[in-house]
Structures are given as C-alpha cells and as structure tokens.
TrEMBL record:
It comes from Streptomyces armeniacus. GO terms for molecular function: oxidoreductase activity, acting on the aldehyde or oxo group of donors, NAD or NADP as acceptor. The keyword Glycoprotein does not apply. This is Aldehyde dehydrogenase family protein. Keywords: Oxidoreductase. Transmembrane segments: none annotated. The keyword Hydrolase does not apply. PANTHER family: ALDEHYDE DEHYDROGENASE-RELATED.
Amino acid sequence: MAQPNGAPAASGGLALKPGTAWSDAWRRCLARAPEAFAEDRVLNLWNGTWHRDGAPSPAVSPVDGGPVAGPPRLDADAARHAVRAALDQHRGWRHVPLEERRARVAAALDALAEHRQLLALLLVWEIGKPWKLAQADVDRAIDGVRWYADHAERMTEGRAPLDGPVSNIASWNYPMSVLVHAMLVQALAGNAVIAKAPTEGGVSCLTLASALCVREGLPLTLVSGSGAELSGVLVRSAEVGCVSFVGGRDTGARVATAVADVGKRHILEQEGLNCWGVWEYTDWPTLTPLIRRTFDYAKQRCTAYPRFVVQRTAFAEFLAAYLPAVRSLRYGHPLAVAAPEDPLPELDFGPLIHAAKARELAGLAAEAVDRGAVPLHRGSLADGHFLPGQDTSAYLPPVTLLGPPASSPLHHAEPFGPVDTLVLVDTEAELLAAMNASNGALVATLSTDDRATFDRLAPQIRAFKTGHGTPRSRGDRDELFGGYGHSWRGAFVGGDLLVHAVTQGPPGERLPGNFPDYQLHPAAA
C-alpha cells in the first residue's frame, strides 16, 4: 500500500512514479533555494530578504491527504512592516530605467524556465493539477511575461509607475499563470509588488518562484496569513498604490467596499456563472470534444462552464453528444503510473482543492436531487486512476444534473468543481434569462448554426467574452479580459490594459473597467 507522499505500492496496480514524491520535491526546493526554504517550513519574503517569522499552518495535499508545507502566517503588525518596506523598495524601483527592469525580468524568466519541472511538480502536490496542466500553468506565466517585455516600450510610453506598490490577493488555482504573471508585469511597469500566498495551496510553488525572481533584483514581497488578519493591511494601507484581487464574490465585495472607501486603484476579478447556450444547433459531432475540454482541472477555474442552457426540442441530440464526453473523462492521482518508466498520466482532472470542497459539492448535488433535479450522470471513484489504498477524500467524480431547483445554490452560483447543471428553455427570452442568471459573467458561449442569430443574441448575454460555438478563456498577451455585472470591479486587464491598470497616464484618464462612478467597456478581443 502506498504511503502518503512517499514510496510506491509494494506490488500490483499503480504506483507513484519514482522521483515525484513530495519528499523529492521538497529536497529539491531546499537545494535550489536554501534562502527561502528551511527543513521544516517555508519563509516569508519582505524587505528583500527571507524571514523565519509567522506561524506555519498544517497543510495536506489534496492528491493523497499527506502532509505538505503550510503557509507561515503573519499577523497584521508584521504585515504592516512588510508593506512599509515594500513602499521603500517601490520608491527606488520606480526610477530604475525600463531597459534595466526588462533585463532583470528576462533573467528571472530564464530562471523560472530552468526550474519549470520542479515548479510544476509543486503545483501537482499543492493544488492537485494534472502534470500536463501544471506545466502549462508555468509555461503560460513565462511566455506571457516575455510578450510583455517585448512590447514594454509601447505600453509604458507616456506613463509612470504608481505612487505605491501593487498588492495582490489571488485564489489558489493559478499561482503561476495568473499571480506570478501579474507580479512580473507589475514589476516590469515600474512597481514594487506585494503578494499574499493563498491559504488553500500553492505557497511552496510561489516561494520558489519568488526566490528565483528576487535573486535577479526584482522588488517582490511574499507573505502568508489569513484574509481576516491581513486583508485590511494589504487593501487599506496608505502605502499601497493598487489592489489586485482574484477570487469569489463574497470576499471580492468586501475588498471592493474597502477600496471604494479610500478611493484606491483596483482590479477585482470575481466569479460568475459562465453559461453555454445551445439554440438552433445541429453540429453535434463538434460539440462532444469541446464539452470534454470544459472539465479541465475539474472546472476549478474562473472561466469554467458549469451550466448548459439547451433548447428543449434539441435536448435528445444534445444529450447524445454530451454523455459520451462526460463518460470518457479521466480523473485520479496525477503521478500514478503502471510502470516506473511510464510517462505521467494525461488526466482531465485530479482532486478538488481539499476534501471539504468535495464533500460540500457532493452534498449540494444530493440536496438538489432531493429537491427535484434529475441526475443524468454520476461518475464513480471506482473508475478513477488511483494508487492502491490511497486517500481519495478530495476527489469528486463528475456529476450532471438536469433542472436544478431555484432553491439550490447550484441554480445560480458557480460550483467550482466537476458538477454540471442543464437547464431547458423554449424561447430566446428564456435562453437569455437563464444565461444571465448570475448577473454578470466572465465568459459565455452560444452554439447556434446561424451567424445572424449569434450576432443578435450575443450582445444580450452579460459576459465579457462570448464565443460562437467555442469556449472562451481568460486569454493571453494582447487579449483583453474583464467581466460584466458583479463578476468584475475596477480596471480591466489584458494587453495594454494590464500595464495601464498599474501605471499612471495623463491627467483625467478613465481606465476601461467597472468603477463605482462609471463603467467603460471596450470591445472584447
């Protein structure tokens, strides 16, 4: 039987691929960044050095329930010292010429690329990403920032860094391609950067990435702590020039209130119920592989599609296309192999972020069925890709429910897990009402054969990006990103807008975004 995070199974079945255990990853971190990792903990980074402060919290890997490094939580007083030190760094860094900033960012990107596989392995253990998706997260961060470095002159022309550092509070699901990417672009634009490590996972990956970047002279601060303890410091402090937040609506609303009170520059990406509509559509063979792709990383991403709104008269054909996709999904332990020389498995998803989330979603699905939803598909852990005897408490097989009742949270909120809900409609008005159930979304898709129908209906869908028969993503490089309604507050990002959001332009400039006193929405890419 496999031990958590440790040796492979003694005989039979799958085994942990040699060299991929958590203990292997941890030893490599100690060897590559001894300034940032101790034998028993990760350190906090502020004032340009690593500090053995904060109380480490116990943490377990969602992959197998075994122990991993937890965040060393600072209290509010310690965080204030870190923020003040970041302001001192900012006052020097903002005067560093662009060419030098770009050279240091480029050197940091080279270091991240050199340690790509270790960063990806940490993502597997800390947040349960399958190997292919973990590597993609690292690659998107590196490639995306290189693009910004190549276009920095144009984006920063006539602009200046902010008066204080940028403070980042981000969710755990994309530590590299969202958080580290944003941090490096912010530094490239002339700002010192503060980041709070997510409490639910990713602290070791972020610590290694930050250590590699700080070695190249970038002004980064990385601290850990509870949101209740640190959010006031990282959001309201006068030293902070901008707040960048990625997370749920409840926390985002509190951050939005705080930044509005002090009139601070902000970028607040929040969740929305992204919907896929099917209306007057017949190209069913194309739909099946697209549906399978929507389950990447167990739909634990802001641009996931957990809701399908389907024309009732086409439901039989839709179901014939949908069920083969969901029945073909592969899920399980991301590092389990049949033989030591085998490549790591190509899975659609691994565990959810923790066992409590899996229990919560399973309970919500069961409750929805009790209240009238129809279960169309229920996967089984018996079909998963697991080590013999491993802890599977954080895993949830895919579930599909028809007609979630209005009393169920699954009717109007994003589940952030492999739970799909289907809603049947008879008219275009019902289609639009169902697709706009959460008062704003980041992305949407409408599958319809007729382009004129898409062009007529798409503008009425309250999503920042709407695809015609294909999924939309957050985007990379020059693709804009934002949200409608409650899914976004503050400045939009992507392309030039990401740099503009963290720099000062001409007097009276109105940044595109959703602000308390105005809304300015550019055409989405």
